[in-house]
Amino acid sequence: MTSATALPERAAIAALLGPARARVLEATRAGASTTELSRSAGISIASASYHASILRAAGLVETRRRGKAVHHLLTRLGASLLAGARAPGHSASRTSRAIWTRLATSNLTRIRET
User: Fold this and answer.
1) Which domains does the chain have, with CATH numbers?
2) Which residues contact 80 (CB under 8 A, 6 or more apart)?
3) What's this model's pTM, rounded to 2 decimal places?
4) What is the maximum span of the chain, computed from C-alpha positions, in angstroms?
5) For residue range 2-37, what is the model confidence (pLDDT) as tens digits?
């Protein structure tokens, strides 16, 4: 990915997820605790935890407990979204459709539960 294409992709992710949630997703790239997410994203620990839970419900992040800490990692889907990568044998539009479908389904389920 060149720097010329990086900005539009980051802007697109921020438009899709919102700026804070996009920063939290980016911060999980190398794995991070909730405290590390909050520092990287410039938000409170409670907000980082909330955004991580939304990203987890969308299938973009997985969370594991390590002692008292909670550690967040990108899933394959989350990494693909950040990288703008295509899965082998899939077109970009098919991959994008899968991501949008996953996010929409997650959001509808969460809305119905409230």
Assistant:
1) 3-113 (1.10.10.10)
2) 86, 87, 95, 99
3) 0.67
4) 41
5) 444 544 566 777 777 888 999 999 999 989 999 999
